[in-house]
Design brief:
mainly alpha
């Protein structure tokens, strides 16, 4: 509900999620493509897309290290020298994409508009950062995260349960870890810890954590299905079914609002 409602408004939190999702998509293509000559290019463009997240909303700066830290974890968990070499090259391509985009942004936008950007940044710091240790601990003790997402208890519970399962795999069975799980898990945790001490935390700031939560919850549902040996039928669903579902959804949406 929160995500749908904020998608109806012209906020920068919405378009930056496109680049976050695009980063994850290109990042996975770089890791899993069957054409090695394209993997470096995919990771290069993933780096460009990643820094575009920061350009749209600097407050999501905590997203920038997520793809890199995930690659570092994959490098540490890998036991093959050839795979480590490949991950090292892909990491370099990702950093190169981010660096080129950073330089272009600094030269073409940041320095020519330094004064207004600096003034806006000073205002954001005054509004958002705690002014004392007492303010910080008060913010930590009263996070709005749970009060917001208790309205969606299924996604909240499933995402945390699957995150705990990933932590278990890290210490007991790393071979079962999927790169996408590490990526969205770090994205989720980065958001929580970044805003835990922040003073100004409107609901719209939590729109950006909904995608990783949803992915974690979906992965949890898939895992439960596999453990219970429940599989969806391997059949193509008719386009008429999707069209009818879309129509019913819009009619109900119009009726409610």
């Amino acid at each position: 509900y929160i995500y749908l409602m904020y998608n109806r408004l012209g906020l920068t939190e919405i378009p930056l999620l496109f680049f976050a999702a695009l980063t994850l998509y290109l990042w996975q293509l770089g890791l899993h493509t069957k054409k090695p000559k394209y993997s470096s290019w995919y990771m290069f463009f993933a780096g460009i897309s990643c820094f575009m997240v920061y350009i749209f909303k600097a407050l999501l700066i905590h997203f920038l290290p997520v793809p890199l830290v995930t690659l570092v974890f994959l490098w540490l968990f890998s036991k093959k020298s050839s795979e480590r070499k490949r991950l090292f090259i892909l990491t370099g391509c990702f950093i190169m994409g981010m660096t080129i985009t950073l330089v272009l942004w600094l030269v073409l936008f940041y320095y020519p508009n330094y004064e207004p950007i600096h003034q806006a940044g000073a205002f954001v710091k005054m509004l958002g950062l705690p002014h004392s240790a007492q303010d910080f601990f008060e913010n930590v003790s009263r996070p709005p995260f749970f009060s917001i997402f208790l309205q969606t208890p299924v996604i909240l519970i499933l995402s945390f349960v699957y995150l705990l399962y990933l932590v278990y795999l890290v210490f007991h069975n790393r071979s079962k870890l999927e790169p996408v799980d590490i990526f969205v898990g770090l994205w989720f945790l980065a958001h929580i810890f970044f805003f835990i001490g922040y003073s100004y935390r409107p609901t719209r700031y939590y729109v950006t954590v909904i995608p990783p939560m949803s992915v974690l919850a979906a992965r949890g549902i898939i895992k439960i299905g596999q453990m219970r040996k429940i599989y969806l039928p391997n059949k193509e669903i008719s386009s008429w079914f999707w069209g009818f579902s879309w129509l019913v959804g819009w009619v109900l949406w119009a009726y409610v609002f």
